[in-house]
Amino acid sequence: VLNVVNAYLQLIFNREILKVSTLQTEATEKEIFRLEKLVKNGSVPEVQILDMQARLMSEKSTKTQNENQLELAKINLLQLLNISITNDQLIELNPLLLDTFSLNTI
Asked: What are phi and psi of 44, to 5 degrees?
């Protein structure tokens, strides 16, 4: 039972980490847009955009890693619950998984 609870909490944790990664990526994209305007006006050097674009690529990589960690956490929980499921079913399950389980039912 503790393994299932731990797996469920890990899944929730990974979901929240992914949300943070998504928000950070969106914020960096907005910052790049803002910097592009400033570069056009001559207020800041173009190198700042390049630095920010490099940061965005790093954040996108981190976001992809977090997406993978979330999927692994889902698979781990399903395995602990002895639920067999295919990849296609896992994709369909994504929005439903966290709504289906709650700490009260485990």
From this structure: -135, 155
